[in-house]
TrEMBL record:
It comes from Devosia neptuniae. Keywords: Signal. Residues 1-22 form the signal peptide. Belongs to the phosphate/phosphite/phosphonate binding protein family. It comes from the Bacteria. This is Phosphonate ABC transporter substrate-binding protein.
Length: 302
């Protein structure tokens, strides 16, 4: 058999295999990262199921809540989850482990056109803590080891702000089990201060325009009068909507097109799925997150 004929046969076989794979994809699986409680995440996300089925031709859309970020990360790496919207550090962890696992296709945009947010350190208002200097010797809680705003960025930016290594400045550090639980832990005294996230736009008294504080306010879990902001990080790129590269290319295109159009086709669903405070999805790519990838390599290593 000639070399050309072998190449042609291999090409035909690959095309047939890809077509068969595309036909076999009858379920799309969306990962939910555990940043808030499972029932609320499911309630916010379920509105995308039926229209996503119609847009892609799959027979079912399933949701997979995880108690932490890593569960979704491993699902995306292993191909058991197809779609997820997560923070930049979570994408960085995936990219470092396997640059070809997912594509960051879209990210959220605020009303002013910006596509970033901030790590916000908070304390109880009655704690006597008013600024970074007064957090010395206190217990610092982080949200999750794979959280951008709740762990990675504070570890990058805080040492310069406090003038010392975190381990030396604070009496104790640990993880609160997601952003919602972290803030609740600050309120109940488990942590003296904690790192969560917000847009930094609008009023702190309202939990800003978007982010975990605003989500908790809107759910009635938080009265901002009980908290004080101690520190705000430099701007962080909004996290990407990621699509697995294990999906056929045409299905990836349909998934991306569906979510990009969602703010126009059903803004209420877009608002719920993204947890509120955003106006649009805009295109994203790997280059947008290179600084976070580099930071994760230097701070965490992977």
């Amino acid at each position: 058999m000639s070399a050309i004929r072998k190449i042609l046969l291999a090409s035909v076989a690959l095309t047939m295999s890809t077509a068969a794979f595309a036909q076999d994809v009858t379920v799309l699986r969306i990962g939910l990262d555990g940043g808030e409680n499972e029932s609320d995440q499911l309630r916010r996300s379920e509105c995308v199921a039926e229209p996503l089925k119609a847009a892609t031709g799959v027979s079912e859309v399933q949701f997979f809540p995880s108690p932490d970020y890593n569960g979704v990360i491993q699902g995306l790496l292993g191909g058991t989850i197809d779609i997820a919207i997560m923070g930049a550090s979570s994408y960085a962890k995936i990219y470092i482990a396997d640059p070809e696992a997912v594509d960051p296709v879209l990210t959220t945009q605020q009303a002013d056109g910006s596509t970033g947010y901030h790590s916000i350190m908070v304390a109880r208002k009655d704690s006597g803590i008013t600024d970074l200097a007064s957090t010395k010797g206190k217990k610092l809680g982080f949200a999750d080891p794979d959280s951008t705003s709740g762990y990675l960025v504070p570890n990058v930016a805080l040492p310069a702000a406090i003038g010392a290594p975190i381990a030396e400045f604070y009496s104790e550090t640990g993880f609160g089990g997601g952003h919602e639980n972290l803030v609740l832990g600050v309120l109940d005294g488990t942590w003296d201060v904690g790192t969560t996230f917000g847009s930094g736009q609008g009023e702190f008294s309202e939990g800003y325009t978007s982010g975990n504080l605003r989500i908790m306010v809107d759910k009635g879990l938080l009265d901002m009068d009980d908290l004080v902001e101690v520190w705000q990080s430099p701007i962080i790129p909004n996290g990407p909507l990621m699509v697995s590269n294990k999906l056929p290319a045409d299905l990836k295109t349909k998934v991306t097109a569906f979510f990009k159009a969602l703010p126009e086709t059903d803004f209420e669903c877009f608002d719920a799925f993204t947890a509120g405070g955003y106006t649009n999805f805009v295109d994203a790519n790997q280059e947008m997150y290179q600084t976070i990838i580099d930071a994760r390599k230097s701070i965490i290593g992977g």
